[in-house]
Design brief:
Blueprint lengths: L3 E3 L3 H11 L5 H19 L5 E7 L4 E7 L4 E7 L6 H7 L4 E2 L1 E6 L6 E7 L8 E5 L2 E2 L3 H12 L5 E8 L1 H10 L4 E7 L2 E2 L5 E2 L5 H6 L3
Parallel strand pairs: 1-11, 4-5, 4-6, 4-8, 8-10, 9-10, 10-11
Antiparallel strand pairs: 2-3, 6-7, 12-13
């Protein structure tokens, strides 16, 4: 059974507060999203398996730990998820990056797919799905379903801010998925935006309206 992990490290709380501020510039917003993703990745990969190896230090031979050959893939949901990719790759430069393009229909609030490009060996990799805002949960749930159709079995979802409705949607559709978030907000408004949230993450990352 998957779990919901609310990461409340002081550094994360501080950076999320900066994201929420409507006066934060596009440049600062983009940088902070990447920094938050980096910090969250540290926690989301805590269960990566390690193996013992023997190395030679400048002083002596030592037994040490290294990651046990696990292959990873990072799959941002376009377009806002792109803002989180560089922060992940700083820690895991060998990860492959796939892309899933989904948008939320403004009338039905249901996800519509318009693009997909994944690594050929995606089914053999641990997958981190990136979506800064987990609002209704429909888009994230659809992306996870799509990855499962590609035989992915080890999937985690990473979102910076989530609404309770989005968490429940993903947990209901995918009870085996671990969800990592930096803040759980109050609710959704009538437009499907997270309250208090931070507005449209994609617009704030890319400076669009």
């Amino acid at each position: 059974m998957g779990q919901v992990h609310i990461l409340d490290h002081p550094l994360l709380q501080h950076k999320v507060t900066m994201l929420r501020d409507k006066n934060t510039s596009v440049k600062e917003f983009r940088e902070i999203v990447s920094e938050i993703a980096n910090l969250m990745c540290y926690e989301a990969t805590r269960d990566m398996p390690v193996e013992e190896v023997e190395i030679e230090t400048p002083i002596a031979v030592a037994k040490a730990k290294r990651i046990a050959g696990k292959k990873m893939a990072v799959v941002p949901i376009l377009r806002a998820g792109l803002g989180m990719v560089d922060g992940i790759l700083e820690l895991i430069p060998g990860a492959k990056v796939g892309h899933i393009g989904l948008y939320r229909d403004p009338e039905t609030l249901e996800p519509v797919q318009y693009y997909c490009k994944l690594p050929n060996d995606i089914a053999e990799r641990d997958v981190l799905v990136l979506d800064p805002m987990l609002a209704t949960g429909g888009t994230a749930s659809a992306a996870i379903t799509f990855l499962k159709d590609y035989d992915c079995r080890h999937i985690k979802l990473m979102s910076i801010i989530a609404a309770p409705e989005g968490v429940e949607r993903v947990r209901g559709d995918h009870p085996n998925i671990d969800i990592f978030i930096a803040a759980l907000d109050e609710r959704l408004d009538e437009r499907g935006y997270i309250v208090p949230g931070l507005g449209d993450a994609g617009d704030r990352i890319f400076g669009t309206k």
